[in-house]
Write a structure and sequence with these properties.
transferase; Rossmann fold; S-adenosyl-L-methionine-dependent methyltransferase; SAM-dependent_MTases_sf; alpha/beta; 259 residues; 40% helix
Length: 259
């Protein structure tokens, strides 16, 4: 029972720490001598928080993330790499040809580049400073229909805007080659416990505003299969998690139909 109560309070803990980093971001912004910046306060705030939280989060999910990313091959579209905490788990060449990391938060780019260098991916990883919804920029970067072997989304689809979400995902689907794989690890709405689902609804009141648009209870596992035709849909709950988890995850892969 104690373990369950601690789990129920985990989002409150994250909101508290996010608030602390908000004050830190404000302090840094006030001390900055620059009168112009290419990032918003909200972006700088989340970048500080995520630099702190991403490494232990990746460590906690190490088994699932490492097994997932070991399947990457060819040309890879890495959606929302953040500060790059998962990059050490990517395969090296020749398994991969090139990785394009879509990261619109420029406050994360310096740390992301350090992670790229440390992972030995400097020659094959390109940071693209925009989001998945910017189709024209994707095309200009050479990511066209049927040009991608693997799409990676690890704890990121929760942060895409609700309006037009399925259209954005459909656009990413078109980038996949027939037979291409979409590798997924995302936290989702708890559909097994009414108490956890209700608590998610309460936390959702505060969650998006403080965590860069993240939705704690998004039905990603229901939305993704609808955006295209798949030969394989292996999305399943993470087995190690209890049915009452306040932030349960689904993981696995979707393989695009060849016809």
């Amino acid at each position: 029972m104690l373990t369950r109560m601690v789990n129920y309070l985990q989002p409150a803990y994250l909101l508290l720490f996010c608030t602390i980093f908000g004050f830190k971001a404000l302090y840094q912004r006030l001390l900055s001598s620059s009168t112009t910046t290419n990032t918003t306060f909200r972006e700088a705030w989340f970048a500080l928080f995520w630099a702190y939280w991403a490494p232990p989060s990746t460590t906690a999910d190490y088994s699932a993330v490492s097994r997932l990313l070991s399947q990457c091959r060819g040309t890879i579209l890495d959606i929302g790499p953040g500060t790059g905490s998962t990059l050490p788990l990517f395969p090296q060449t020749p398994a991969i040809k090139h990785i394009y990391g879509l990261e619109p938060n420029r406050s994360m780019h310096a740390e992301l580049q350090r992670s790229i260098d440390a992972a030995g991916l400097s020659g094959v990883y390109t940071i693209l400073p925009f989001g998945a919804e910017d189709v024209e920029k994707l095309r200009a970067a050479g990511i066209t229909e049927g040009s991608v072997d693997t799409i990676v989304t690890v704890r990121v689809l929760c942060s895409l805007e609700e309006k037009g979400l399925e259209k954005v995902l459909e656009g990413l689907y078109t980038c996949l080659k027939p037979g291409g794989e979409w590798l997924v690890l995302e936290h989702v709405r708890n559909w097994k416990s009414g108490v956890s689902a209700a608590l998610q609804g309460f936390y959702q009141i505060f969650w998006p505003g403080m965590l860069a648009g993240c939705n704690i209870n998004r039905r990603t596992n229901e939305i993704l299969p609808r955006v295209g035709k798949w030969n394989v849909n292996d999305l399943v709950p993470v087995m190690e998690e209890e049915h009452w988890e306040i932030m349960p995850h689904v993981w696995g892969r979707l393989i695009k139909a060849r016809k």
